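We emphasize that the prediction below concerns an isolated chain of 89 residues; any contacts that depend on oligomerization or on bound cofactors are therefore not represented. The input was used exactly as deposited, without trimming of termini.
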Amino acid sequence: MVERGQFAQAAKLFEKAANQGLPQAQQQLALLYKDGKGVPADKFQAYIWMLVSYDSGNASILPTFWNCKPDWPPLRSIRRKQKPVRWSR
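Result of the prediction step, given as a token string:
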């Protein structure tokens, strides 16, 4: 489906499979969100699905994850909102 450019239909099927825990579907859904193909571009959703895919045992997602992560503004804004952790004894 993705090869034929039917991204919206592919996104629906990948999302269904991703929610059932299939790591490759989670990876494909992440890439669709990252590129805005078939779904609105949402780099934060892409990031989350990449983490879920990795957590499901898909180590092949790591190069894509590390290449994309630093450029994502949602992550910088989350870091700015976090308060520093204070350690106490």
